[in-house]
Amino acid sequence: MIGHYHPMTVLVRQIVSALSEQGFLVYSSPELETEANNFDFLRVPADHPARDSQDTFWTVDGRVLRTHTTSSQANIRNVSTRPNPPFRVLVPGRVFRNETTDATHLATLNQIDGFVIEESVNLEQLLATVKLILEIAFGQELKLRQRPHHYPFVEPGLDIDVYFQGRWIEALGCGLIHPEILAKMELDPDRYQGFAFGIGLDRLCMIRHGLTDIRHLTKGDLRFNQQLSVRS
Amino acid sequence: MKYSLSGLNRYLTRPLTIDQIVALALSLGHSPEEVGQDWLELEITANRGDVLSHLGLARELAAASSQTLNLELPTTTADQRLIIDDTKPLSVLLKTNDLSLELKVEQPDSLEALSLALVSLPRLDSQSLQEFSSKLEGYPDQHAINPLVDLSNYLTLDWGMPSHIFDLQPLLDQQQNPNQSIQLTLSQLEQPATYISLTEQQHSLLPGDLVITDHSGQPIDLVGIQGSHLTKLNQQSRLLLIAVIVPKARLVRQTSRRLNLITEASYRLERGVDRLLVEPTLQRILAELAQACGTLDSLATVTATRQVTPTKIALIPELFSRSLGFRIEKAEIIANLKRLGLTNQNDQVTIPSYRLDLSLPIDLVEEYGRLSGYTQLKPQPLPRLSTVPPERLAQSHRQYCQIENLKDQLIDLGYTELVTESMASADNLRDLGWSLDQLVKLRAPQNQLLAYCRPTIVSNLLQVASQNNWSDNQLLFEIGTVFPDQTTELTVLTLVSTHKKPPVLTLSQQELSAQWQTLSIDQPLAKRLSLRKAVHYLELPVATILGDDSYKKLELATTKLKLVSEWPPSVRDLAVIIDQSISSQQLIEAIKTIEQEQLDSPEIILVDHFDTFKSPSFNENQISYAFHLVYQRRLNQLQPLTNDEVDEAFTNLCQILKRQFSLTIR
């Protein structure tokens, strides 16, 4: 008798397998974060409208369940052993949104963030990296569209859309790491550059497996979970 | 924000169609949300307050379509000009034939700029006034309130500069002042106060809120957010204070968010507006009023601004090529920036007053990218990394691989992996013996099932076991984070089994069978979860059972997964004795093929192979496989299946299988 992997494990493992061949390493960062790491470090101050887009789970003692795996950028610099560039990092993990659960919303979601810090990286390399990830997720070659978007922690910031089944689907946010963030990591922004991306994995899983209700991923109904079979 | 096509085209020398605007807005980073025949709604990001107006978006469209903006600002003609200096209190005095008004600004550092007019309207031509309302209603989703209010609201949408018009008559009546003089103060409150807004809603104000108060200290305006009912305009209003005030953005935000009072004015002011439009906006209101009323002979105006030098940013051409990844000529950069109103002189780029979001050299790269750079990007793979990975990352990566290896071991043992919510309810945790005081509690969860960060995954998996009690041989696992106390965050492996006996378990060469615990059906949690039989569970910190760090490369054999009906499943068990050269997978494939050919029958959503055995009573080359067949209604899932329907489909399936394979149904 063979058991069944969760669809999220398969997706993340496929992404990690492909990117580890390019020198990316998985970094694990806490799910329960300080407000400073989740927001302030990433240039999302308390009195700024950019915070409005986050439906945050606050704990009674003022910490947050991370709203994005991007908080790993703050975490990685926190300890005195911050790796020296060049490095390429992947951070798969859970993120949290204090929203009412329905067919398209969950309180516990999955993301994968990636960031690269080297003496010279650019948007064309970023584009190739996210294209690789998206083609793994969709299981086919894809046409991508890049358009400007504002995320306080990157500059320039971009959204990437994927052309799939006759329409454009918003797939992820990315950009070059903001020089102020590099400086906060005690890296000289004139010497180093970085790129970063963050991808919501639940929606990719839904598209990949033809789901119309996101709750199937966490409900634990074995009629669903045991349908998934893999070849290894 | 919603924009009207004609409102945008008014500022363009070459009018654009709605489709052209949609395409340009998307490429500029203003995502279309909804599009009508002559309007569109865009998502404007928090850093681009300057685009929250027809003028602002038209500026962007003009740049992207290489045309000049059609804009002529009115000449500024304020009677008095003052400088805002944080070290000196500011006093503004306005005097007309009928009235004098003094506004004291107690904390000048709360202000960016202001422009005021004291005016007494001679007569009102109702038809002309009506035009203000018509103009406003020309914009999508706008409704007339009062012609003067409509004029102010129209300018907010047109130029993005909020203004407020006060009716001063009630203040005069209240203070019974024969000298016709009004004293107002603009300050941050020192004491809590009560405020009744234009819409007659009562709000509690706190020290620090920025207000204008009358002579008695009563707040008459929540500056940058909303006026009060005390000076609300009506059809008879003639004696007016017209105020275009730009407070510090953070003060507006602080108060409007706390009161949950988000207005067209506060939304723009907290994002930042163009200070250079303060006086032109006032002049435009006065010009419109003059047109409607004839000359405004009883009028006094004042403008107070800060001395601000334009922002300049160094132009570093190599930063553009280095960041984007392809070679760009300096002349091309300069030409593109110029289209956006960013002018270069001696490699210093001057930033227009409305672009509050630009301050660093890399910001200019983004501007170039938005206008023409991003379309030129071509994916280029990262070069091979030749350095040794940093130790900390190598360790973290190894742990990921070890966890994946552990998952492979569990899948090989027949366990199904689950991913459940990271929160848990108080009741379930209490039943498992957790003291709630030691746990991480969430401040305002959407529902009480999510009240605590989970200290264990056991309760979640027991819940899953209970939900699936149609399957009597469940083996479940989850590897995830738990929060057993205020300071600990730990990754654990949790297993649940509904087998009669705790399963034998060896992981990473460690014998773990003795670690199972059992929840019997008479325990409170089992009752709460409606478990029908005893369940075994085990939870261990994952770090204690990590071994090999090689994991399998996985490829999906199933891509499309079927959605599960809300109704409980109908399950039939199929046990067959068959030649051992036939694998269980072959039988599963055969069952699925038969099912797909029987479109009138219920759907088999899952074939769960739960048992394999050989018996001395079978022939030597025979084997037995047992499956749960899980049925649900095809397509129309409005009603549950009946037993008869499932029985019929199952019998039919057995007959076909018998014909296809020489097998015995047990």
Description:
The complex is a heterodimer of chains A (232) and B (666). Chain A has eight helices and eleven strands. Chain A is an alpha+beta fold and 232 residues long. In chain A, helix 1 (7-20) packs antiparallel against helix 4. The longest helix of chain A is centred in the middle third of the chain and has 16 residues, at 123-138. Chain A starts with 6 loop residues before the first helix and ends with a strand. Chain B is an alpha+beta fold and 666 residues long. In chain B, strands 5-6-9-12-13-14 form a six-stranded mixed β-sheet. Chain B has a five-stranded mixed β-sheet with strand order 4-16-7-15-8. In chain B, helix 2 (18-28) crosses helix 3 (54-64). The relative contact order of chain B is 0.07. Chains A and B meet through helix 1, strand 1, strand 3, strand 5 and strand 6 of A and helix 2, helix 7, helix 10, helix 12 and helix 13 of B.
List descriptors.
heterodimer; A: 232 residues; alpha+beta; 7-stranded mixed β-sheet; 3-stranded antiparallel β-sheet; 11 strands; 28% helix; globular; B: 666 residues; 6-stranded mixed β-sheet; 5-stranded mixed β-sheet; 18 helices; 33 strands; 30% helix; elongated
